[in-house]
Amino acid sequence: MIPRLSRYVLREAAGLYLVGVAGLCLLLSIDLLSVLARFLVEQGATWASVGRLLLYKLPWFLHLTLPVAVVFAVLLVSGRLAKDAELRAAYAGAVAPGALLIPLVLGGVVVSGLALVNNGWLEPIGEAAYQREIQGFLYVRPPAAMQTDAAFVVPDQGVFAAARIRAERDASHRAELLGVLALLEDGTVVSAPSGTWDAEARTWTLDDVERTTPGGERERLAQLSLPFALEATPEETLARPQQQTLTELQRRVRAAHAAGSDAAVPRFELHRRVADASSATVFALVAGALGLRVRGRSGGFGWTIALLVAFWAAWTLTGGLFETGVMGPVAAAWATPALVASIGAVLAWRVTHR
């Protein structure tokens, strides 16, 4: 009887979940639709272009709607079951609350897996395609990725710094360097106004170079090639973290650590995507524990609003604390789901031991 009851609850929740995903995506798209409408008029975009832009943004909509819709579905289906006295009948038939909570949490685990694929791979691919489509209207050629005040520590070679690094549009393995300063392993200081980074050759080729030896002797060279064995290409190093997949972000963080450069932003992006995906499981736990205690549909709806507002406030706050340097990237990424999970664990314990 219990497996049949679990399937019944999951089937009821699945229908509401799909409605919740569709409704939340529609709400999130309203603001974008107004932007695209202006874009349609001002840039002469076609309806097909607008449709592609919406499609590219769909994974971004799903980033939060996939886990958030779990709250909507679980609490509303629990409220309906309570209103129709089905929960009371199940408890009277010796069905333990945990027998209903476990399948809901397992459903959340499945959603977390789907959200991880969306957040980790579909969303950055869609964001990159969205930016290319937009830039195709605004620029004859898309602008190249750029980073200012970049510094790298290359083992056994020295410290390399540049005031600006701009990736070449037609060659992802090459980048333009401006304002270069390098402190080599033997103490030699090299400076140059410009140069080129070639990731395939693993070199920085500098123009109009001034080189100062540890003894203070200076010489000027028209060109100098320095070995630069960084395990990353300019495209990977300079790309916006939002347009990189989880695999690319992992490589970027490892390369940044090896080079001694700051990896906080890509590390935060990496952990936040995984943490946001795990929120579906956390939401299923909290919503299931709350749902098994509510007494009607209105109670389920009220708890849905309260939980989502609290989660959004905490999620936004931790992101702001990371940007201001108050919290580290890992702590900021996982703080909100960890807090909600702890609350869910307490509620689940109370439900299963009442």
Topology:
Blueprint (H helix, E strand, L loop, with lengths): L1 H41 L4 H37 L2 H7 L4 H42 L7 E9 L3 E10 L6 E11 L4 E10 L4 E10 L5 E10 L6 H5 L7 H14 L4 H28 L5 H27 L5 H24 L2
Antiparallel strand pairs: 1-2, 2-3, 3-4, 4-5, 5-6
Helix pairs in contact: 1-2, 1-4, 2-4, 2-7, 2-8, 4-7, 6-7, 7-8, 7-9, 8-9
Write a brief caption for the model.
Helix content is 64%, strand content 17%. The chain contains 9 helices and 6 strands, in the order ααααββββββααααα. A 6-stranded antiparallel sheet has the order 1-2-3-4-5-6.
Provide the succession of SSEs: HHHHEEEEEEHHHHH
Specify the helix fraction band.
55-70%
State the low-pLDDT regions, or none: none
The biggest beta sheet reads: 6 strands, antiparallel
Mean pLDDT: 87
Strand order of the largest sheet: 1-2-3-4-5-6
Number of helices: 9
Radius of gyration: 26 Å
Descriptive report:
The chain has 354 residues and is an alpha+beta fold. It has two domains: 2-139 and 266-352, no CATH class; 146-231, SH3 type barrels (Roll), CATH 2.30.30. It is 64% helix and 17% strand. The protein contains nine helices and six strands. It has helices spanning 2-42, 47-83, 86-92, 97-138, 234-238, 246-259, 264-291, 297-323, 329-352; strands at 146-154, 158-167, 174-184, 189-198, 203-212, 218-227. A six-stranded antiparallel β-sheet has the order 1-2-3-4-5-6. The mean pLDDT is 87.
